[in-house]
Amino acid sequence: MDKKIAVVTGANRGMGKAASEKLVTLNYHVIMVGRHEKEINEAANSLSAEAFVADVENEKDIEKLTNFISEKYNRLDVLINNAGIYMQEENLFSSKESDMKKTFEINTMGPYRLMKGLIPLMQKNGYGRVVNVSSGLGSFGGFSLTCPAYSVSKAALNMLTKLFSSAVDGKQVKVNSICPGWVKTDMGGPNASRSIEEGISGMIWAATLPEDGPNGGFFRDGKPLEW
Ligand SMILES: NC(=O)c1ccc[n+]([C@@H]2O[C@H](COP(=O)([O-])OP(=O)(O)OC[C@H]3O[C@@H](n4cnc5c(N)ncnc54)[C@H](OP(=O)(O)O)[C@@H]3O)[C@@H](O)[C@H]2O)c1
Fold first, then answer.
1. Looking at residues 157-163, what average pLDDT do you find?
2. I want to staple 11 with a disulfide (CB 3.0 to 4.6 A). Which of 28, 32, 150, 162 is the partner?
3. 6 CB less than 6 Å from ligand 1?
4. How many domains does the chain have?
5. What CATH code is carried by the domain that includes residue 220?
6. Which strands form 5-9's sheet, in the order they lie side by side?
7. Residue 57 is part of which domain span?
8. Does any ligand 1 atom lie closer than 6 A to the CB of residue 36?
9. pLDDT category, 214, cuts 50, 70, 90?
10. β-bridge mates for residue 223, sequence order
């Protein structure tokens, strides 16, 4: 395969689908990951991309995905950890432990397992860009009492960015977190301030960084954010 290969999770709708579409137009071969077979197949077919059915909460599915990429392509150039859930809580004290665990599994453990499985392949081939789609709500200055599970999961995702970015060379392989801003998707809702196109611009920037671009940072629209 001459094209660069990208994996985008949560690609059946929202920013994951839009980022996949953009990468296809930039001539990437995009593997769109979604947990519902019919939806992800339809989305991938509509964009001339490849579909892979996986629930990022499921360890076995992640293992299948990493094995599939190693065996079929023996290479991966871009990983966008985009799949995520957001749960609104009435207040911190009544928030549910089960929500905290589920959100952590999807928003944090999924990216952790994918980075563990796929970054070694990037290192072997001397190129890789990992984009962890985080949120200002996961920053120490921007958290919210109405979504403790989400804030904890994204703060932990940012720490994974720091850890994995410190374990790679930072030139050939880079790992960064981005916040897309408040975006009009199912998650962001209709009152969000930004369009999907605006939301994904920082994702695509981080996915296509040149060799002298940053590693181990947290960005919105390519500009550094406070952790
Ligand atoms: N929208 C915002 O304002 C905003 C702000 C800051 C950060 N973000 C982050 O941006 C990313 C994309 O958000 P979005 O606004 O595009 O959200 P969205 O429209 O709600 O889409 C979320 C995507 O994640 C997928 N997903 C959720 N759980 C999954 C699982 N267990 N396995 C596989 N896929 C799963 C969903 O698939 P299903 O259809 O199967 O549920 C869907 O494709 C998220 O990480 C979010 O936290 C969003």
1. 98
2. 32
3. no
4. 1
5. 3.40.50.720
6. 50-53, 29-34, 5-9, 78-81, 128-133, 173-178, 218-220, 223-224
7. 5-224
8. yes
9. very high
10. 220
